[in-house]
Each structure stands twice: as structure tokens, then as C-alpha cells.
Amino acid sequence: MLLNRCPNLQELAICSFSSSTRVFDFDRITEGHWPKLHTLTLGSFGYQPDYTIGPPSIETGLGQFLDRHSELKYMRFLWNFRKWMSPEAIPLYLSSSSLPVLDTFIGVYQQLTELPNPQAIQTLDLTCEPVYETRLTTICSALKTLKNLTSLDIWVHIIDEGLDHSSFFKEILTSCPKLTDFHFMCTSSFTVVRLVYLTPTGCSLPLPETSKTVGYPTPLAPGSKTILSDEGTQIS
């Protein structure tokens, strides 16, 4: 029915949020073409029993499907890697003219690096899996291509929560000079005491003084006023 009877479709979500379902096969969907489609949610992607990335359509049809939908502005890919780390590369097989107006991307950094028009991205969510320090350089290189990024959500993994991690966050923030909203969550305890370490040294992007939510009415810059809240798991 979707493929042949919904020519004016503008929003499409085909996904599974089941914790017991690692990969959800949406193969037939990639055969479709909806010229007005502007919002897309697909998933979940993940490891198959042989530890290849699935579903199979991620390699056989997804790239061509995205090429056909040049009006996409919002794209969300759900991932479930369970207890394993994601692979270093996840190709999307996109043409150089694909996704020219995409301004919101939710997924993994490996797919972010595959986007041919990163300058269009304004909102980015990388909370599908934690960012490890070993991958920070690659992720920051990708962030630097997002010249108009204003909102970033990221999940970080702090191995030793007792250390000074200001340089870790400084690298992320200095890669995104136009940020007006920054949200992060940590896999380890991140109290107000730990947040003191985020006071930047030599960084022109001041960070909040507590650990939940801070609003920036203008791009992060010296003297920006912070609005604080009292919860200790996320910062924005």
C-alpha cells in the first residue's frame, strides 16, 4: 500500500524499538519513491548473526533510496549494537548530489562522514552509542565539516571519571564554533565536582557550571549567560 497508494507521503517511520530485536528488515521500503518526503526514520540497524551490518538493504538499496529523495530534511537512523562497539566504517553509497537540504541527522558518526552535503546540517544527534576517546579525532574531523551546526547531542564514555577531561570536551566544542545548544550524557557518574573540570583553558567556548541543562540564547562565546538546573546526568 505504501509503495503504490501514497504518492504525497511526507513523513515515514519504519522502525522497531524492541530491545529483543537487533535488526529490523525494511527492504521493500527502499523500493519506494515519494517526491514530497521530508522526514524519515528507519531502524533498527545493527549486527546480524554473522556480525555483518544489517539489514541487507543498507548495502543493496538504501543509498539509491536516499538519492531519490532530495527533499529530505530530517533523517533518523536507529542503531542497536548491544554490547559490541560499532565498526569503523559504515558506507552509505550516496551520490555527490544526494541529500542537498538535509538539516537534521540522528545516527552514528560513521554515516555522518558519508553525507555529501555536510554544510546543510544544523542539528546533529550522536546518542546511538557512546563516543570513546579512541574515536574522538575521527568524530571531531567530521564535526568540522558541519559549518552550520548549531545543535549537538552526544553520548560520551569516560573511562576514568576522576581525571580532568576538559581537553576531551574542548576538542568537541572547538570543532563546532556556531553551537547554540550542546547536550551530552555520560556512561559514568558525572557530578558537579567532575563538571568543574570542564572550565575551559584557552577555549573561547565557555561551558556550564553544573551538570544538567544550560540555555545559550546566542552562539557560545565569552560572556554568554547560563541558565542552570539541578539534575546531574545531562548538560545542554
Report what the structure shows:
With about 240 residues, the protein is α/β, with parallel strands linked by helices. It has one domain (about 1-235). It has seven helices and nine strands, in the order αβββααββαβαβαβαβ. It has helices at about 1-5, 55-60, 60-70, 110, 135-145, 165-175, 190-195; strands spanning about 10-15, 40-45, 55, 75-80, 105, 125-130, 150-155, 180-185, 235. Strands 1, 2, 3, 4, 5, 6, 7, 8 and 9 form a nine-stranded mixed β-sheet that branches. β7, α6 and β8 form a beta-alpha-beta unit. The longest helix is centred in the C-terminal third of the chain and has 9 residues, at about 165-175.
Number of helices: 7
Q: Globular, elongated, flat, extended or rod-shaped: what is the shape?
A: globular
The total count of strands amounts to: 9
Proportion of strand residues: 15-25%
- Helix/strand-derived category reads alpha/beta
- Contiguous low-pLDDT stretches (5 residues minimum) are 199-203, 206-236
What is the end-to-end distance?
A: 42 Å
Radius of gyration: 19 Å
- Describe the largest sheet: 9 strands, mixed
Total domain units: 1
User: Into which percent range does the helicity of residues fall?
Assistant: 10-25%
**Average pLDDT taken over every residue:** 74
Order of helices and strands: HEEEHHEEHEHEHEHE
